[in-house]
Design brief:
The longest helix is centred in the C-terminal third of the chain and has 16 residues. The chain has three helices and seven strands; from the N terminus they run ββββαβββαα. Helices cover about 25% and strands about 40% of the residues. Its cofactor is a divalent metal cation.
Amino acid sequence: MAVRACGLIIYRRLQSAPSSKVTDGIEYLLLQTSYGTHHWTPPKGHVDPGEDDLQTAFRETQEEAGLQASQLTLIEGYKKELHYPVCGKPKTVIYWLAEVKDCNTEIKLSEEHQAFQWLKLEDACKFAEYEDMQATLKEVHQFLCSKE
């Protein structure tokens, strides 16, 4: 059976000059794992028994980044399912999109991660070395641009 994980792609909007496009001020939160290859990823984790997928995404975000559900706005209309093998076993990861209500909210990492960064799309794609994650970040950015 496939391993199932859920998470949130979290972004913030920086207060920018009125002349610039709003999407230029968007930054994405990536966490660097403290295990394995120290890859960069949005907060995510395995579904616990009795939990639904979205509950998992919010719980993992709170555990890994210290962000409470009340500090986030879930963005309607975006949900992405990724499928890839991990250690030879199939894995499914479902992501939703959420914006931090206050762009200065403090990030508090768990021991699962050693660093975090808020990154503009281009840099976020460099840090997220997996192609499917890069494609997902670009898709999210397009989605946000189309909403304006």
